[in-house]
Design a protein that fits this description.
Length: about 325
């Protein structure tokens, strides 16, 4: 496996970065957080650009490139949930024009003469409050629920979280009827690997944004007649942040490569990516705030959005400690 981008991938990264920086500036994120502006036009621009069609296994690396750039700008759309959580569960039933979400737990399915009945509640569903379709994972299988056709027995309530532009919702299904045709032959294990990779690379993008802002501040902030970036303590923190980000980024793209190649190491690679991203955000969060000082705690500072997105990722789909335990189990079971 090659661990460097080829010419086409570098061009793709530059194209995505340029588009995102223009369409999703920091001012838009602040406007959404403060005034509740609807990011629908931004989502539509992703759809028109064809980014929501990156669902094929072969496009895992290209999808990761997009998600890293979206993490860098604190993307406010349902892109992450739709492409990395919903799409891998529904396969060829995916619609690139519609936002989706995945309900991973809390719901049971029972069989009767007319089909299946879904009942239960998942308290934390990424973008569950604005999804048009849902993939519901139950012990009996994965079911597709189209909220555009029938949402009478599905209730969603957005949950307050510390990231002001992240949508997390409590989703309740009460006697939701689905036909046999809506029971999907999903590979839930592979879908989880894609979800972990997507969350991890999004965190890496957010951490890179923290470092970029911290370096910009260190170059301009003066203390004792010199830029604070000339102080050894600041340089050490910046170096530690850079190393942590590069390590996590490399593991995320390795995870994407294993998904693209359907490599049996993808379970281990996904766990390594999420664990490394979680450890990365802990260090970058702490050092980023320390480099800014008291200014880093103010609402007026755009640093907060990247900090909150990176930290939110650690609390979704299992934290670093959980995935470190999975890695340990893998190596313990391996015949090395």
């Amino acid at each position: 496996m090659l661990l460097e981008f080829d010419a086409d991938q570098r061009l793709w990264q530059e194209t995505v970065r340029d588009a995102v920086s223009k369409q999703c500036p920091a001012s838009l994120i602040r406007d959404i957080a403060e005034n509740g502006v609807d990011p629908a036009s931004l989502w539509n621009s992703y759809v028109e650009a064809g980014w929501t069609e990156l669902t094929d296994q072969d496009n895992a690396v290209e999808l990761a490139i997009v998600l890293e750039e979206l993490g860098r700008v604190t993307d406010p759309t349902p892109m992450l949930a739709t492409l990395t959580q919903f799409a891998p569960l529904v396969g060829d039933r995916f619609d690139p024009l519609s936002a989706g979400a995945a309900v991973y737990s809390g719901v049971t399915a029972t069989r009767d003469a007319q089909g299946w009945v879904l009942t239960g509640t998942d308290r934390f569903v990424l973008d569950g409050d604005r999804a048009e379709r849902m993939a519901v994972v139950t012990p009996a299988g994965v079911f597709l629920v189209d909220l555009r056709a029938d949402a009478a027995n599905v209730t969603t309530r957005r949950v307050d979280v510390f990231d002001p532009v992240l949508h997390v919702a409590e989703v309740s299904l009460v006697g939701v009827r689905v036909a046999d045709t809506e029971r999907l032959p999903a590979d839930t294990e592979r879908a989880r690997h894609v979800a972990l990779m997507g969350m991890a690379i999004t965190m890496v993008g957010a951490c890179q944004r923290i470092l970029d802002l911290a370096l910009e501040h260190a170059k301009s902030r003066q203390q004792f007649g010199a830029a604070i970036g000339t102080f050894q303590a600041i340089q050490h923190k910046a170096t530690d942040m850079h190393v942590a980000i590069e390590r996590a980024r490399a593991l995320c793209y390795f995870s994407a490569l294993t998904i693209a190649a359907d490599d049996p190491r993808r379970r281990l690679a996904a766990a390594m990516a999420k664990a490394s991203a979680g450890e990365c955000q802990a260090l970058v969060f702490r050092h980023g705030l320390q480099m800014f000082g008291a200014m880093g705690f103010t609402w007026e500072n755009d640093l907060q959005f990247a900090l909150k997105r990176a930290k939110a990722g650690e609390h979704m789909l299992g934290g670093a400690a959980e995935h470190r335990a999975i890695i340990a189990e893998e190596f313990d079971a391996a015949d090395l």
